[in-house]
């Protein structure tokens, strides 16, 4: 069975959120509300509009990061999948558009090689749409195996927000606005397979 390795008790877990179908902002807001009820949200980043990475032609994403109370990887994965299902996410097309995508990025310095959920996320260090909002919400953040998130962002774009990210005037710490319930009926062709096998996006 896969093992978890942790040096110190984590203060929080880091989750990345994205949406590019329907009421994107409403879906992110509703997801934060559900995560808060299930886990406890400690902080939320500004929201960025970003170009899709890979996959078929599709609309731009809204992306953000939240810090939540820590929990074991499988427990977090269970909550994340339930929140995605509430947004009518369907896993069908790799790197395809989706109503909502929530990924577990890190849980303190814990490392897990569980095939269901790799921690830290194996591609987080390559993704501006993860690292930039994460740095906003936690300037001292470190990604196990890759060092300070500030250094990752600096290497991506000489210390500036990488091209393709546009900060919008709303933060996940702002009051929650529930998405239109009818919008949850949208079919969402998205990533197939486990989080360990597929990219968050």
UniProtKB/TrEMBL annotation:
Q: Name one GO molecular function term.
A: 2-amino-4-hydroxy-6-hydroxymethyldihydropteridine diphosphokinase activity
Q: Which CDD domains match?
A: HPPK
Where is the segment annotated Disordered?
179-201
One Pfam family, please name it. Answer: HPPK
Q: What is its EC number?
A: 2.7.6.3
Could you tell me which InterPro entries the record lists for this protein? Hppk (IPR000550), Hppk_sf (IPR035907)
Where the record annotates domain 7,8-dihydro-6-hydroxymethylpterin-pyrophosphokinase, the positions are 94-105
Its UniProt pathway annotation is: Cofactor biosynthesis; tetrahydrofolate biosynthesis; 2-amino-4-hydroxy-6-hydroxymethyl-7,8-dihydropteridine diphosphate from 7,8-dihydroneopterin triphosphate: step 4/4
What are the entry keywords? ATP-binding, Folate biosynthesis, Kinase, Nucleotide-binding, Transferase
Reaction catalysis annotation: 6-hydroxymethyl-7,8-dihydropterin + ATP = (7,8-dihydropterin-6-yl)methyl diphosphate + AMP + H(+)
Per the record, the GO terms for biological process are: folic acid biosynthetic process; tetrahydrofolate biosynthetic process
Enzyme's top EC category: transferase
NCBIfam families, alphabetically? folK
PANTHER family according to UniProt: 2-AMINO-4-HYDROXY-6-HYDROXYMETHYLDIHYDROPTERIDINE PYROPHOSPHOKINASE
This one is known as 2-amino-4-hydroxy-6-hydroxymethyldihydropteridine diphosphokinase
